Amino acid sequence: GAVVSQHPSRVICKSGTSVKIECRSLDFQATTMFWYRQFPKKSLMLMATSNEGSKATYEQGVEKDKFLINHASLTLSTLTVTSAHPEDSSFYICSAEEGPNEQYFGPGTRLTVT
Amino acid sequence: AQSVTQPDIHITVSEGASLELRCNYSYGATPYLFWYVQSPGQGLQLLLKYFSGDTLVQGIKGFEAEFKRSQSSFNLRKPSVHWSDAAEYFCAVEPENTDKLIFGTGTRLQVFP
User: When comparing pLDDT for A102 and B62, which is higher?
Assistant: First the structure.
């Protein structure tokens, strides 16, 4: 099946710094990628839809200036958490759409902000 | 309000026992329906999906799910659970005319030998 990778798998950063998370589709091209956030013992919450070559579409309540998304190629989308704070600590998961209604998920990135 | 509900937060079964994980949704039209499994260190893996047609859907790893329109449910079943099935299971819906997945809160499955 299609494979999606995320890098890094874990990251610890200091409050006020920025962190970039990469999402790559390894064996297919993805015009659309999605970014989710998962809180402990909670569901995945869609943060934004990332479209190659255009601006991301953010869900209600998600700060676009804080969570910068870039989808510069058909195999790579990045999520940058700017000026991170402890409340941004979470598990971030991306998915890539291989075809209609076919999302493949990355293994996730655990972000801890100290 | 539109929602996906998984009433069971945590289920424990013995290996070899049957399993049913519940999922209910509230959307105006029939959305696309999915079940995913999440294991530590691994991405969500699609077990099965329902778009239309036969309401009993077969998936990977011996799982199946049945769509019941009258109950707005899409319960996941497995006749005989294996220890390797221990994981977090998520039901998800894709509302009509969107490509967004809405996830339930998940059910953690624990399997005892």
Answer: B62
